[in-house]
Amino acid sequence: MSINRKIAPEFHLIESLHFPDYEILQTKNGFKLYSLRAGSQPVIRLDFIFDAGLIRQLKIAESAFAASMLSEGTKNRSALNLAESLDYYGSYFQTRSNPDDAVATLYCLEKHLENCLPLFLEAITESVFPERELDIQKKNSIQKLLVNEKKNSYLCRKHYYKNLFGDKHPYASFSGKEDLEKTNRDSLVSFHQNHYKNGLKYLMLSGNYSEEALRQIDILVSNIDFIGPSGKKNHAEIVSQTGKFFIEKNDSVQSAIRIGKLSIGRTHEDFRRLQFLNLIFGGYFGSRLMKNIREDKGLTYGIYSVLEPYKEAATWYIDSDINTKNRESGLAEIYKEMAVIRDQEIPKTELETARNYYLGSFLRSLDGPFSLADRLKIMIDYQLPNSYYPDFVSVLYNTSASDLQELANKYLGEENIVELVVGKK
Q1: Range 23-222 has CATH code 3.30.830.10
Q2: Which of 286, 378, 392 has its CA nearest to residue 14?
Q3: What does the domain layout of the chain look like in residue ranges?
Q4: Model confidence pLDDT, tens digit, residues 150-199
Q5: Angle at 237 between CA 233 and CA 242, to 5 degrees
Q6: What percentage of the chain reaches a pLDDT higher than 90?
Q7: Is 3.30.830.10 the CATH number for 243-423?
Q8: Which of 10, 19, 173, 211 is the most buried (most CB within 10 A)?
């Protein structure tokens, strides 16, 4: 039977959401292993989450270099040998340093786990941070920094966070050329000992795997003397400097703009409704900021707003690049839209369109085992209940226009705003 493409498919409202079951196991040496079986292909992802994020570093760039250098050689293998050994099995691992943690991830076929996992663990625990590779990474980072410092968007982002969180806070940690040059092997070895070997928080396995995979992980991980995180904080308190700030860059045609403030985190009762409000205001292509400032006024190619939560703090901001000659008009329209969403209820049609879009896009974000694992990590890190995602549907359906207007007045006001503009006067 052929499909009649002249007839649009039926429209179905999303009425419920199911997040798959997962298990919380424990390795013999006492670490939690979250097990999430999903997907049809025999591909697995194994995540090691360490208390080694920006909030743990004592020197700028320590966290990022420690993560990126894990693959650069061990006591027994060079970086090339390690990469080729994993590549032989069609596997690879990646590391990333985040504001609140660091994650080392192995991707492989389950049938090759027995061969790949020892290589992965060797890279995590026996990295030697060789001087030659460190020098190469430092030079590459400095070149990348020099390029970024010519970009208005980078300068705007950097100075926004420094004003919002305070110059000494890790969430505002941006490396300078001198910081990169000063990075040395001894400090990275110390950071690795204190926050990787002595900072394993938990493990997470996702994909299509058997009990044998869990057994292999348990045996190999339990043979390593990992220690859990100490929980000590090494960072300064948040000290915001609010107001309007301008950084002159006279060779600019475009002006980078970021306007925002401190906001609420994931565990706050208003957070998910505020996410919905942000979507309507500037969180997708059909948002108010896009319709007004891009489509109607033609002042920018793109503008959006973001609600960005971390463990220690959160921020809500508006971000755009606007032609310098249109900059003042763009700023005026941004503040105008902020006032309108506070002063007037959102029309029913706009509310329903945004709700349906949000539910659909959220459902797509749960497609596949590794996407589900990303969502599970959020639940673990913020100690959210198992009903957190299934409840998302009812939260959206039970949020009215008056609820959103109340939230707009509560969280989208102009008090304590940081406005950062980088461009030509």
Answers
A1: yes
A2: 392
A3: 23-222, 243-423
A4: 999 999 999 999 999 999 999 999 999 999 999 999 999 999 999 999 99
A5: 150
A6: 88
A7: yes
A8: 173
